[in-house]
# Entry
Amino acid sequence: MGKAGWMEPGRNTVGVVLVVVLVLAYFLVISNMELSRDSQFYPPPYRQISTPAPVASVWEDPGPYHVAYPRDYRFLLEDTAVCKDPSPFVLLVVPVAPADVAARNLIRSSWGRQAEVRGRLVRSLFLVGVDSSLGAHTVQLKLQQESQQYHDLVQSNFIDSYRNLTIKTMVMLEWLAAHCSSSATYVVKVDSDMFLHVPNLVDLLLQPDTPKNNYMSGLVWWHSPVLRNPWDKFYMPREVIAEEEYPPYPLGMTYIMSLDLPHKILSVSREIKPIFIEDAYLGMCLKRLQISPTNPPAQDMFLVNQPHPLSPCALSRVVATTTTGAQLMMNYWRRSQQPETRC
Ligand SMILES: *[C@@H]1O[C@H](CO)[C@@H](O)[C@H](O)[C@H]1NC(C)=O
# Structure
């Protein structure tokens, strides 16, 4: 009796729970149907691109701190002879937003223009993903025209966004490993808002003690803390990165790499899930390769958030600096073309 009396309410509870679960399941199914119906009426913007630009087939949600890098992105545009004959000494790669024609033209008409510096061949390339705005179709058509005109664009079929910068860097490495590792010696990744002093860059690379292999340099951050404030743009929870510091890496605004590295970094990156912080991720890959980044010979070669305008002396020593806009960049470029101030 005692036992049966104890069982009765249990059976009732099971019944109630079953009903609740069934009702919940029913609503879940209905609301999902609503969702998928809605998304037929409002397709994600990238579906509007008429050019075949399918997003990588196996899509897995990378969550908020990682990026989707299934290694099967395709190149949509790569109509360029860069790294074919003749091979450059250094290749400048500029990641830029697909729609930012102005930034590309500014670079084409300033520091990206020099073809031969100190007797060495310098080439530049722009790297873009796929635009996902409402105007994506127009952006894509313009990119195609631009590519036919300048032959300096490489486009991959991932969605170009700030949170996807690591994907951009990884596809850059793929492209370099496939096309440049046996021809060019160095690659420099430069953000489109930077001023790059190409003669000073070439001088640095030509110095006898600049390594030709396993070399990565720039403004090296040796003790970059992993930020734990959830409101920070670069917040990273302990579950993702347990260490208190990232391994050393050069800041993403401008870094130099010898061209044996793209292939090496790609191979170890298979073992390290890519985080959205592009430069710190490269640091993690370098650490796995047991390669340390190299400080530039002088600390004033790579400047970040310096008071502007730079003095003639400071400008004559700089390799790369942040700028405040197009005008200042053009100003620095013109000044860098004039007879040099030594100090
Ligand atoms: C990053 O790119 C992938 C592949 O194109 C895309 O599925 C994802 O939505 C993009 N993420 C962001 C934040 O744009």
About this structure: Confidence is low (pLDDT under 50) at residues 1-10, 27-53. Residues 75-297 form a domain with the Spore Coat Polysaccharide Biosynthesis Protein SpsA; Chain A fold (CATH 3.90.550). The first strand starts at residue 75 and ends at 77.
